[in-house]
What does this fold into?
Amino acid sequence: MNSKNLKLLQDMEIPAILKGIGIERQMTDLLVYDSLNHASGFLPQKPFRSRHFSVIIIIKGILNLKVNLFEYHLTERDIIIIPPSAIREMDWEQGQAHFISLLFTPDFLRTSGILDKYLGIANFMKEGLIPYSKANQADLKVLAQLAEIIKGLMDHETEPGNDLEVIRNLFKATLLKVQQYYNQMETDHELSGTIIYKFTRLLSENYFSRREVSFYSEKLHIHEKYLSQVLKKKTGKTARQYITEMIILEAKVLLGDRSLSIKQIADLLNFENPFHFSRFFKQYGGMPPTQYRKGL
It folds into this structure.
């Protein structure tokens, strides 16, 4: 995906979330979001993209989450890590579900010294995986307490000032704890070497311009029929379905930006013209793009 597309999709970054929950702060590269204490009405009821990392910890209840094309029904003690630029959809029942989300930018990792001093922690954020695991009750309590302390220090005043170094160290401690579960995620899921993982990673990098199944099968050095057979057996979807759904998902994100015309969206998604885009969206999205936009 090129930088032009990323600039068009910066709708739910940390400054926008701070504004949505009514907090004024100069520090906009780290945020602890608590679903019980913070408003959620500002979150779009549609797919959105963010350029920050999210570490979500479920305290109780159920969080229904969709990241790119994968759905997760997270319950108490689940931890999930979402990398930047992933397309997300979130849904939970107010008052019934409680989760804490640690949001932070790549710049915060760099300025905190984590990429230099704690490279092992940061590695899991470069893999492109969407891993999740279940923490034990004691660790859940520790993670919740660490997040609450960070939140308290940041909310104490509009400018962290002398507490900034304390916040950074508490943040490092939190990631060290999360890393223990990340290591388990890699071992348990054994995902990084599979055809499914390699395909979805290739797809996330190329779907804007390459929609032929043969492109992905050639990159993976396998026959395209075999690629679809593996995906169908393991996930219930063929390679063609994955490609189509990814384009539709991206189109829905772009349609949420009313500053973009249908023609501009068609161009961004590399359709020959708006007519072809509209026909494609209606066929696979269930309605014309103009109708979808009106319903947002």
